[in-house]
Amino acid sequence: MMAENNIPEEKKNETAGNENSAVKKEKRKKLPPFTRSGVLLLDKPKDWTSHDAVAFIRSKFNVSKVGHCGTLDPAATGLLVVVLGKFTKLSQKFSGEDKVYKATMLLGTETDSQDMDGNVVRTGDYSSVTEEKLREVIASFIGDQEQIPPMVSAVKKDGARLYELARKGVEVVRDPKPISIYNIDVEKIEFPYVSFTVYCSKGTYIRTLCSDMGAKLGCGAALFSLERLRSGEFELKNAVDIETVRNWTQEDLENHVSSFIHAKLAKMNKFSSF
Q1: CA 20 to 30 Å from 18, out of 43, 97, 224, 248?
Q2: Residue 213's closest CA among 144, 134, 102?
Q3: Number of other CB atoms surrounding residue 255 within 10 Å
Q4: pTM (two decimals)
Q5: Rounded CA gap, 246 and 63, in Å?
Q6: Would you say 147 and 136 are in contact if contact means Cβ atoms under 8 Å apart?
Q7: Number of H helices and number of E strands within the chain?
C-alpha cells in the first residue's frame, strides 16, 4: 500500500492507461481465426486503396487468407469483390470478368494522370463541341480495340510497375492492350461535365478512355469521377459499406458470407467444390 501511495497521480494514470491498452491488445489477440470461405462485396469509399480494404478485413476479423478481385484506384468508389479463405483460389477468375462503371468526364482539361489526382498539363476550348458531336465521338469507342495503359497503372514494364516509374518521374513507351467496350450509355451532359455508364472487358482503363475521347474531340478531357457498379456476377447493390462492416462481429461476417453464398452462388457450378 505504501508503494502505491508514493506513486504520483500522473504516473498512476499512465500506468492505468498502459494496462487498459494491454488488455485491449490481449482481447484482439484472443480473437479466433476466421475460417469461413466465401465472398464479401464491399462498397469501397473514396481515398481508400483496395489494399486498405483488404488489410481492414484481415485485421478486424483475423482472416488469414483474404484478397480482392480487381483494383480500384483510391479516388474511385464502388464495388470491390473481396474473397476469403478457399475462394482466394478464384481471385484471378473473378478479376477477369467484364466490368460496368459509372463515370463522369471533364472536357477541356488534361492531366498527367488522366484523372483529377494529377497535375493539369493542358486546357482546351470545348465551346465548339456540340451534344451531337459528343455522342458521335463517344459511340465511336464502342467495340474491340487496343488501349495504351496509363503510366499510373499496375502494368509491368521490364519488371517494374508503371506507377512506380511514374512516381520517379519516368515515362516509358507502353504496348497497347486489347480491350472490348460493349456499350456506353450517355446519361447526363452538362458541359464541361459528361456522365456515362461503360460496359467493358477486363483491363479497360476509364481514365484513358476519357483522355482518348478528349483527344478525338480536340479539346482534351480527364476522368472526373468513377464508380464500379458491377464485376462479373457481382453487383454494387449487393455490397455493404465500410461503416456497416466496422460494427460487425466475426459472427456477423460469417452469417453474411453464408447467406450470400446460399442466395447468390448456390446455383453456380463453379462453386460446387467450396
Answers
A1: 248
A2: 134
A3: 13
A4: 0.84
A5: 15
A6: no
A7: 9, 14
Residue 244: which residues within 8 A CB-CB, separation 6 or more? Answer: none
The model's pLDDT over 169-218, given as tens digits with 9 standing for 90+, comes to 888 888 899 999 999 999 999 999 999 999 999 999 999 999 999 999 99
**Beta-carbon contacts of residue 145 (< 8 Å; ≥ 6 apart):** 178, 179, 180, 181
Task: Clarify whether 73 is annotated catalytic.
Answer: yes
The tens digit of pLDDT for each residue in 18-60 reads 444 433 443 455 689 999 999 999 999 999 999 999 999 999 9
Direct distance between the N- and C-terminal alpha carbons of the chain, in angstroms, rounded to an integer: 60
Which is the catalytic residue, given 43, 47, 73, 98? Answer: 73
60: which residues sit within 8 A by CB, 6+ positions away?
A: 245, 246, 248
DSSP code, position 150? P
Q: Which helix (H) or strand (E) is 122 found in, with range?
A: strand 120-123
Residues 6 or more apart whose Cβ sits within 8 Å of residue 263: none
Chain centroid to CA 64: how far? 21
Q: Within 10 Å of residue 191's Cβ, how many Cβ atoms?
A: 14
β-strand 38-44 against 77-84: which pairing, if any?
antiparallel
Going along the chain from its start, the domains and CATH numbers come out as 38-96+234-271 (3.30.2350.10), 99-231 (3.30.2350.10)
DSSP 35-89: ---EEEEEEEPTT--HHHHHHHHHHHHTBSSEEESS---TT-EEEEEEEEGGGGG
Grid cell 499512465 is found at 14
